[in-house]
Amino acid sequence: MDADMQNYQGNGSTKIQQILSSYIYTEMIYVAIELRLPDILDDVPRKAASLAEIVDVEPQAFNRFLQGLVMIGLIAEDDEQYTLTEVGKSLRTRESGSIRDLALFHREVGIPTWRELLYSIKTGKPSFEHVFGRSFFDYLEEHRLVGRTFNLSMNESTAIIADAISAEYDFTGIKIIADIGGGQGGLIGSLLKSHPSIEAILFESALAASDAEEYLRSIGVADRCVVMVGDFFDRVPGGYDVYLLSHVLHDWSDDSALRILRNIRNAIPSHGKLLLVEALVQDSGDQSSFVIKRDLSMLVLTGGRERTEKEYNRLLNDARFSPRKSIPIQPGRIMIEAFPIGD
Hints:
Layout: H1 3-6, H2 12-20, H3 23-34, H4 37-40, E1 46-47, H5 48-55, H6 59-71, E2 75-78, E3 81-84, H7 86-89, H8 100-114, H9 117-123, H10 127-132, H11 136-142, H12 144-168, E4 176-180, H13 186-194, E5 199-204, H14 206-218, E6 225-229, E7 242-246, H15 254-267, E8 273-281, H16 289-301, E9 307-308, H17 309-318, E10 321-330, E11 333-340
Helix pairs in contact: 3-8, 5-6, 8-12, 11-12, 12-13
């Protein structure tokens, strides 16, 4: 049994009750964010009455809600004053590595999609399209606020793995990186900050690109990263030393993933290389809860899936790439270094 499931204690029925009630925590986190409590309590202890007045809520109900936040560890109570815990600080608007936007995305898009999991199990199709009437990425393009929230949440998660990539991979001699489908630049931005001699291009859809320039400016690397707008199903820009493809292929079916890889192969010079970063399904044995949840998320959101290393290598070979090195960068994540095969 996975460690995540072992966190639920008790016998069979008690454990099931705990699992069934876990949605309560998502709603509590969402309300805390909507009321701006992580920002209001940032380094300023306050009493319940003062907080209730600031956020304009019914005091008695709010008191009960604060006890719930204490229970899940977002805030602490001491001498009738409430303070933000280290866990709660991760939800502050200004916090580096904040998961605030990811929490909002789960609440506003994830829950309605997961509510129709049965549809995906019966049909093999993403329940997102069943619920929202369009594909996941078309929806993000049409609903810019949700799309921006999603891209910000991806910034937060990809920035976390950038340090791991830098620690495990030698970027010596690399002059320019083409980040294909890199969102708002969370990963490439972090890599540029760690490697001042490297330049980059970020190739994305119009939605992500419009926010990427602002984000890259905010972290001080915009002068070394050109943002290009395009569709990787049509073509990708050519001639760069390294092509970076991070957590893109898992969004797509094998046919679509192969189309992306073939477009990169058509663009990459003979001396270039591809760095493919993805979560990894094990060939056998127990799978981590991280990968299982991501794989099911791809099922309901996009129709994509997580893959084994052999499956990624097969896609790379079919696109005329030769996988040379497999680098674990975090538990459940891998980076494959691949080189173009001659015509």
